[in-house]
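Hi R.,

Here's the input for the guanosine-5'-triphosphate complex you asked about:
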Amino acid sequence: MALKYRRILLKLSGEALMGNHEFGLDPYFINELADDIREVYELGVEIAIVVGGGNIFRGMNGSQIGLDKATADYMGMLATVMNALALQDILESKGMPTRVMSAIEMKQIAEPYIRRKAIRHLEKGRIVIFGAGTGNPFFTTDTAGALRATEIKAQVFLKATKVNGIYDKDPVKHKDAKLIKEISFDEAIRKNIKVMDQTAFTLCKENNLPIIVFSIKERGNLKKIVQGENIGSIVK
Ligand code: GTP
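And here is the predicted structure with guanosine-5'-triphosphate in place:
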């Protein structure tokens, strides 16, 4: 089967790794996630992953307990590196070569992020996991995802969430929320539909990078997406 996307950026939130747990990592869920990633890897897709850290530390909560926002954000960035390392081990235990690259230098545990090197790793068939966000406070991991996707010339930004796409209102709170299968960047802005934060969204828009929002809870979605199936919602 022909591939629609040959190089992807997969954004996994910390919550996505948490599965049904309240905190930390859900081994059962990550295992299944790794199997999904392997299906795509075996098709020859070049995979870059940006992980969040909300399952370990949330920048926002840090602010609530009186930490400076920048400090809290740096702590959040460290949490994403922990997730990156965990994901690396699990993917490698399933036979996928990986490289973790950190936006904040910590050479003993991860390679520093170097754009050209990241691209080379992808070309050599390694899954590249980006940790530490953009390396700057005040930017979300969605923004890190949009930035890295653009830098490595990914063909699509895959935003894995708990819900199966973009709705006209929060589907958790509103029973009559409608799924939007396809929307343009301009229309999403006009209708004030929050796909991701403005910085991340604008980066995707300006670089013509389509965003697919899909459920990470349904197995096999990733494979279907790279093969061109109409899964989740697309912004383009
Ligand atoms: P090629 O040069 O394309 O062969 O890539 P490579 O990543 O296999 O080669 P390299 O010799 O750079 O890396 C070998 C191993 O060391 C890989 O697992 C890298 O992730 C790891 N590595 C490379 N640089 C660093 C670093 O600065 N810090 C850490 N912690 N690991 C590194």
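One thing worth noting: Residues 69-93 form the longest helix (25 residues).

Cheers,
M.
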